[in-house]
Amino acid sequence: MLSDGMKYLETRLMFGMVPGLDSTRMICDALGNPERKFKSIHVVGTNGKGSTSFYLAGILQAHGLKAGLYTSPHLVSLRERIRVDDEPISEADLDRLLLQVKQAAESVSSAQAALGKPALEPTFFEVLTVAAFLYYAEKGVDVAVLEAGMGGRLDSTAVAGGGMAVVTGIGLEHTEVLGPTESAILREKMGVLGVPGEASGVVGDGAGKAFVLGGLGPDLLEEAREYATALGASIVVPEVRTEVKLPNLGRHYVENASLSLKAAELFLNAPDRAGKRYDDALSVKALATRSWAGRMQLLTGPDGNVRVILDGAHNSHAVRRLVQTLDEYYPGQKFHCLFGALKDKDLHEMLRLMMPHVSQWHVTRTPYTRFRELSDLQTEIESLGGHVASAGEMSETYIQGTLNASEGPLLITGSLYLIGSVVQILKNDFDGLNFFKKLAPSVNENH
């Protein structure tokens, strides 16, 4: 049975994603601006935001800071999205804070109506973001690492007005909202710290602010420098720390960890900050055991052998990273692959890239309507010369069947929502999924 807070949150699903800061600001104002009671670091980009945020929060925590972490989407439970020192928010706290946001939103809406203005109808993401602000303020965090949901300039996390933004890389995504080119998308994402020549309320101007940039080609990097200069912010482009060892396989995670290391260094060594200064050896040690779930994550059996490779490669850009990693760590090896994808993804390109690495395909879907039908997946795979060994709806029986059929590690990929379903089913079978054992499934806003 849903709690009252969760019932309210689910009523917000119908409003979809609405870029803009007005609703979030008005609700925060009504609640006494909880977002101003802690420092924030923003993380924006096309891919890699979640892992970068997770690594950064862990490094700050290792230095003795109480660190908040806000990420999306979740794999199993909404509680994953709002953490303090790696502990997810409790069901009771989440319910209580959602109802506080509801009350504040209704108060603002009544005031709007009295002025003849439209009712305030905050979105799912806006409500959850304000609940996170309230939680971090209550818990007295020293810093919150905030992953943007979409873009940056008009993403509700921007209301926190942090002094630093980590940009993980730029690709074409949400072009109908963020713009048709990588250049336009870059400006939207960097806008999380403000817009040159534009008064931006809580976000303020760029004085004393900093961007940590990764994954940008020469042209975009030059544009980023021009944007930062116009804003009055500084820019750091860290070197990739190839000596860093992570549980998540792949150079792209090393790149993300490198961004996190530099962001932590800048934050901890800021002239106006008291307390422990940045310790690189401590930071690298913290990363060595920090596994970002569902992203090139290896699940081992009792015998120590890898049984499952979980990777939420949900678009062609992410699949390229996946196959590069397979080439590096499993050269020449072909896998049984459990695959499911959403309707709005470039299925043909994703499958084409993966085809050389797959011996047998097992296609699946969850009950959510955005998933492609099994027949569509099978037709596309066979048109590329692949062999579909099985097709079935996602279930414990189907996963166990594919595990039994796979001679080596079973590769599971295609959608983060698929990964979430798999994690929920397998969480009691692998120590690598211990974080999820006490979490009950809840809906994602994009379903």
Structure description:
By secondary structure, the chain is an alpha/beta fold. It has 2 domains: 4-287, Mur-like, catalytic domain (UDP-N-acetylmuramoyl-L-alanine:D-glutamate ligase, 3-Layer(aba) Sandwich); 297-436, Mur ligase, C-terminal domain (Protein-Tyrosine Phosphatase, Chain A, Alpha-Beta Complex). It contains 15 helices and 14 strands. The chain has helices at 4-11, 22-30, 49-62, 91-114, 124-139, 175-178, 182-190, 218-231, 251-268, 280-287, 316-329, 347-354, 374-383, 396-405, 416-426; strands at 39-44, 67-70, 82-84, 87-88, 143-147, 164-167, 210-213, 234-236, 297-300, 306-311, 335-339, 358-365, 388-393, 410-413. Helix 12 links the parallel strand 11 (335-339) and strand 12. The radius of gyration is 22 Å and the shape is globular. The model is unreliable at 200-204 (pLDDT under 50).
Note the main sheet.
Answer: 8 strands, mixed
* CATH homology superfamily of the largest domain: Mur-like, catalytic domain
The overall strand count is 14
Based on CA atoms alone, the radius of gyration comes out at 22 Å
> What is the SS-derived class?
alpha/beta
User: Number of helical runs?
Assistant: 15
Helix content: 25-40%
Kindly give the count of domains.
2
Features of the shown structure:
447 residues; alpha/beta; UDP-N-acetylmuramoyl-L-alanine:D-glutamate ligase; 2 domains; 15 helices; 14 strands
Give the structure's gist in a few sentences.
With 447 residues, this protein is α/β, with parallel strands linked by helices. It has two domains: 4-287, 3-Layer(aba) Sandwich (UDP-N-acetylmuramoyl-L-alanine:D-glutamate ligase); 297-436, Mur ligase, C-terminal domain (Protein-Tyrosine Phosphatase, Chain A, Alpha-Beta Complex). The chain is built from 15 helices and 14 strands.
